[in-house]
Design goal:
12-stranded parallel sheet, 32 strands, 43% strand, globular, mainly beta, Pectate Lyase C-like
């Protein structure tokens, strides 16, 4: 090969590579489809849908949408880019026997500035078999990992029968936001929703509206650096507490805010604040809640715990009623 030809050959290689990358991006659709009778070799179009979420996501552009065309079980998924998965209008299901339903793991990327995931209208089931025994074998319904995302939206979903948590958020980037609306998270071995960080600089928020977190160990578990607010929710029938704020890290705060919630028939406590290390701070704030039927007490304040109340809650019918040790909050300005 002559010296004169070599630079032109290098330019040609670069141009071919650039063209291939552009073609790949252009080949991805903003909206793709899955079907119970689809095939992952298909382009995931409306007329030629894919079979699984995993097959569809590789053919869906960043911040695009995967829709369920008809009823089916579409498999577990690791989400590595902004995406919406929508099962509204049919039955979109994930059976996560022995594994996690959805893993959210989105690295910081200039091509994905939003890093936002929406899961809507899905049934996420962790049931499985252990020998001849049918039991929870799924790990977490949704697990948001260290890379995580900027925001996760859960809308109109059912997440149930996982051995650990319905939704687990751990050590995500600072200012992560979780939004849960009109969903049922039940019958999980640990918490319905668990959020915590061992990094004192990583702050996370959770907002839960019009949802049921029942039959878990704890309905809500806010650990270090988590701020979880629940409004108009049911936190009932959990084996330990309806809601718990419990930071395990010195100097790091955990907060749960409850408003207009039904907190009933929990095995030990209606709400629990603290009970961990003496240098941690764990706070529960109460406004217009109905707390009843707790096996031990309606309100439990442990080591380094604090329960603040507006004095407008109904706390009765528990083994121990009232709010002993609580801190009154003056009525807010209107």
């Amino acid at each position: 090969m002559s010296k004169l030809f070599r630079p032109s050959f290098k330019i040609l290689v670069v141009l071919c590579f650039t063209f291939a990358v552009c073609t790949l991006a252009q080949g991805q659709a903003t909206r793709t489809w899955v079907s119970g009778v689809g095939d992952d070799v298909n382009p995931c179009s409306r007329t030629a849908p894919c079979k699984t979420f995993a097959g569809a996501i590789s053919k869906t552009f960043i911040n695009g949408e995967i829709d369920c065309l008809d009823p089916g079980g579409f498999g577990t998924l690791t989400i590595t880019k902004s995406i919406t998965i929508d099962g509204t209008g049919t039955f979109g299901s994930t059976l996560a026997s022995g594994t996690t339903g959805f893993i959210v793991n989105i690295a910081v990327n200039a091509n994905d500035p939003l890093r936002t995931v929406t899961l809507r209208g899905l049934s996420i089931n962790g049931a499985g078999s252990s020998g001849t025994v049918g039991t929870r074998t799924g790990i977490n319904g949704i697990n948001v990992t260290t890379n995580g995302a900027a925001a996760l939206y859960i809308e109109d979903c059912v997440i149930f029968k996982f051995s650990q948590n319905g939704i687990n958020v751990t050590n995500v980037p600072n200012n992560f936001n979780l939004f849960v609306r009109n969903s049922v998270i039940r019958d999980n071995g640990l918490a319905g929703i668990s959020m915590s960080s061992s990094n004192s600089l990583n702050f996370m928020r959770g907002t839960i509206e019009n949802s049921h977190l029942n039959g878990n160990q704890n309905g809500i578990n806010a650990g270090a650096n988590a701020r979880i607010s629940a409004d108009n929710c049911s936190l009932s029938g959990n084996s330990n507490a309806g809601a718990m704020a419990k930071s395990l890290s010195a100097g790091v705060v955990a907060v749960v805010n409850l408003s207009n919630c039904q907190v009933s028939a929990n095995g030990a406590h209606g709400v629990q604040a603290g009970g961990a290390g003496t240098l941690a701070t764990s706070i529960v704030r109460l406004n217009k809640n109905h707390i009843t039927g707790s096996g031990t007490d309606g309100i439990n304040i442990g080591t380094s715990g604090e329960v603040d109340t507006y004095g407008n809650n109904q706390i009765f019918g528990n083994n121990i009623d009232g709010c002993p040790g609580c801190t009154p909050i003056a009525a807010p300005n209107t």
